[in-house]
Amino acid sequence: MKDLSQQDTRKVAIIGCGNVGMTAAYAILMKGLVHELVLLGRDKSKIIGEQLDLEHGSPFLGSTKILATEDYTDLKNTDVVVLTAGAAQRPGDTRLDLTKRNITILEDIIPKVIKYAPNSLILIVSNPVDILTYRAYQLAGLPKGRVFGSGTTLDTARFRFHLSEFLNLNPRSIHAYILGEHGDSSFPALFSATVGGQPLTTMKNYTPERAMKAYEKAKNAAYKIIASKGATYYAIGVVVAHIIETIFADTRKVLPLSIPLHGFNGLHGVAMSVPCILGRGGVTASLEIKLSAEERTKLYRSAEILKRAMPA
User: How many angstroms separate the CA atoms of 176 and 213, rounded?
Assistant: First the structure.
């Protein structure tokens, strides 16, 4: 197996070239993160148009080879495969409503990825991300840390943004996570949240009511955006680019990613978001941050909801 920590090929493949996949591709190119970008989907004629549109901005960007394809053999030597393929949320849908449709799509894709890119990391973005991440882990048969989902990274970014509004602080200075399901059973981990080493709960203007209002805004953001314009893609595209950047720079940043749990707070047999250390080889560890008794109960409840939603 090639050592991702030593190589510098920087080849990324995006499977699924709809709004999310192409926004992620655009964000990756704008940051100059990769040497080669593969766009893989079922409609090659459309993807060729996407390829050309992106290539025509190359004189103003870094040098990146872009390939439009429907052939999985083009995944050879890929470092990171990003899966955005699948049915999207419609107005009124929860993420769990997509389970059956997108599990079927995933079960067709993952064996092909493993056949042609057995050494890649696999980043799941399609929803329901936690269930798909766990199923991809089962299908791939890769070591722990090689398959993970974008999880609540976007939820957490939204949460920090809404906290910053009433705290009058830069969101980057707020260290507070949304954990559990990327969906309705998620919860804010406030017990251990900090700002500059100071407990979030002691900050001026903080109240539990304001914090929960910020959480509700973050949790319901996708529903509001989908009702308004039909889909969410800009922010998640930026999140994907940030994850790719974290991998290639080997920054070992802590992000709330969806991973299969192997004893985290006693949990097994489910994937959901917990604080993870991410680097060139994937997720190297998860951090069991301090949770209140109520937060731990919410963590277990979220796990049970996801387990019940997983297909037999």
Answer: 14
- 137-184: per-residue pLDDT in tens? 999 999 999 999 999 999 999 999 999 999 999 999 999 999 999 999
pTM of the model: 0.94
Query: Residue 92: what pLDDT?
Result: 64
Residue with tokens 């304001």: 210
| pLDDT, tens only, 87-133 | 776 676 666 677 888 999 999 999 999 999 999 999 999 999 999 99
Q: Which spans in 59-98 are helix H?
A: none
Tell me the C-alpha distance between 260 and 267, whole Å. Answer: 9
How far is C-alpha 41 from the chain's CA centre? Answer: 20
Written in H, E and C, the secondary structure of the chain is CCCCCCCCCCEEEEECCCHHHHHHHHHHHHHCCCCEEEEECCCHHHHHHHHHHHHCCHHHCCCCEEEEECCHHHHCCCCEEEECCCCCCCCCCCHHHHHHHHHHHHHHHHHHHHHHCCCCEEEECCCCHHHHHHHHHHHHCCCCCCEEECCCHHHHHHHHHHHHHHHCCCHHHEEEEEEECCCCCCEEEEEEEEECCEEHHHCCCCCHHHHHHHHHHHHHHHHHHHHHHCCCCHHHHHHHHHHHHHHHHCCCEEEEEEEEEEEECCEEEEEEEEEEEEECCEEEEECCCCCCHHHHHHHHHHHHHHHHHCCC
Q: Which residues are catalytic?
A: 182
pLDDT value at position 214?
A: 97
Q: What is the pLDDT of residues 68-84, one digit of tens each?
A: 999 999 999 999 999 99
